[in-house]
Structures are given as C-alpha cells and as structure tokens.
Amino acid sequence: MTSGTPSAEPDRARADRGRALHALRSRDFRLFFTGQAISLIGSAAFTVALGWRTYTLTGEASFLGFVLGLQAVAIVATLLVGGVLADRYDRRRLMIASDLGRFAAVAALAALDASGHLTLAWLLGFAFVLGLGEGIFIPAFGGMVPLVVDSTVLASANALVGIARQGSALLGPALAAAIYVPAGSATIFAIDAASFLVAAAFLLRARPRRLPARPPAGARREVADGFHYVAGVPFLWVMIAISSLLLMVQVAPFQVLLPDLVKTQWHQGVGGYGLLMSAMGAGMVLGALAFGTFVPRRHRAVMSFAIFAINGLIVVVIGLVP
C-alpha cells in the first residue's frame, strides 16, 4: 500500500491544477476573463503613465494627490449606486456601458495629450469621469463571475480573476516603462482606451445567465438601507474605517510621492518608475501564491493587518533612504 503513495502525490497535484483552471472550460467565462485581463493590463499601464505625466506636467508631487483623490471621490460617490444598479439591471450591459464611457474619456485624454494642450484642469476632469465609470463598473464586475460559470467551479473562476488582477500589476507597469519614452504618454493612454473597447467586445459575445427582473422603484431606499446596514454591524464599519485609514496614511502618500522620489532622489526616469511599480506587482503575485499555498484558516484578519504593518515599515525605510 505504501508503494503507491509517491505516485499519488503528482496525480493529486495535477488534479489540483486541473481544478484551478476548470472555469476556463466555460466559453462565457473565457470571453469574460480574456477581455478583463487585457483591460486590467491597460489600466495598470495607464496608472503609471498618469502618475508620471501629472508629475512632469506640474512639476509638483502634490498635484498627483489631487488627481488620484478626485478619482477616488468619484468612485466612492457612485459605488453604492453601482451596487443597486447591478442588483436591478443587466450586469453585462452595465459593464459594457462603463467600458465604452471610459474608452471615450481616455481616448479624449490621449488626443488632448498628443495635441500638446493637456493641462492639470483637464487631468482632474478626466480623473473624475473615470472614477464615476469605475464606481458603476466595480459592483457589476463582482457580480458577473457567478453568472458566467457554474457554482461548482466558482472558486476556480475567482482564483483566475485574482491571477489576472495581480498579473496585470506586474505586466502593465512594465509595458508603460517600455513604451513611455519612445512613444509618449499619449500612446499609453490610447492603449488603455483600446483595452476598454476590447473588453466590451469580448463581453458583448458572452451570454451570462440572467437574474430575475426586479422593479425599478426604490433605488434610493436601497442605497439608504445599505448605509444603515453597514452602520448597524460594528465589525463592518470598524474594518472599513481601519482599512480606509491605512490606505490614507500608508498607500496614498507612497503612491503620490513615488514619482518625485524616483526622479529627484534616485535620478531615474519613467522607466525606473514603471519597473519599480512592476516589481511591486511581482511581489503581489508571489504573496498571493504563498497565501494560496499555505491557506491560513485562523486569524486571517490579524494576519492581514500584520502584513499591513510590515508594509508600513518598508514604506518608512524607503522614505528614510534619501
């Protein structure tokens, strides 16, 4: 009996890998996954180009904070509304409408940048419009996955979506680093705009399951109910408050000040900035793989905040380098 054990391990490993990729057997999920993977890579490249273009346009690191802050405000302002819409209307159509709207905004940004007439005011306006589109898109995206795969392979689908998101954080910045200098920021903006069109085209061919129709009345009440529900569950609002605080004091300043740090302290250009962001994406991929391998079953919240604390110490070390 023991002689069969060594050969059973590779068979079990192959079976696990097969289950992890099982969602790709679904035609609708393949269309959804391919389009969104391309869009995520374009958006990750856009983030690098936006950060560096804002910094070089204004010469001040703080103005990137205004651009990203306004985009975040727009996302928060429409997120709950997007959730209500995703519960009531066709999520595929909402995602396609959001993709087309963001395509128009980013394409206009690319054209304005290429013409040499881009200003900070235009950047702020485009960031706000993109945030509105993302606030509508995010809830529809989150609710789409169960509609394009069977419930038996939902874990596989979610894992693949996570891989696409983390992989885009590695590939997108590297793409921006390679293209920005020879082709300019407008080209990267145009690539991101095209990625929204590609995602919409793939999603247009998908045929997800339909949710039961709901009456259109009472949307405001549902938004209010959402606020009341979160306020009534201490764990939820405490976690939201702590996470928001960590993002404001740790992630946001690092993201805003990084272009200035790269240029003035390390004397590097957009290539170094993009590669640094790509290295961060590589760390995300390795961290996700490690988490998926060990699968901690207890104290996950404590572990998450401990990792945030370690990240904070790394940010302090980077800040003290100059």
Question: What's the layout of helices and strands?
Answer:
Elements: H1 5-20, H2 27-58, H3 62-88, H4 91-115, H5 120-148, H6 154-183, H7 185-205, H8 219-232, H9 234-265, H10 270-294, H11 300-320
Helix pairs in contact: 2-5, 2-6, 2-7, 2-10, 3-5, 3-8, 3-9, 4-5, 4-7, 6-7, 6-10, 9-11
Q: Sheet with the most strands?
A: none
Count of strand segments: 0
If classified by CATH, what would the architecture be? Up-down Bundle
Amino-to-carboxy terminus distance: 62 Å
The CATH superfamily is identified as MFS general substrate transporter like domains
Structural class by sheet pairing and helices: mainly alpha
Helix percentage range:
over 70%
- The number of distinct structural domains comes to 1
Which CATH class is shown? Answer: Mainly Alpha
Uncertain spans: 7-18
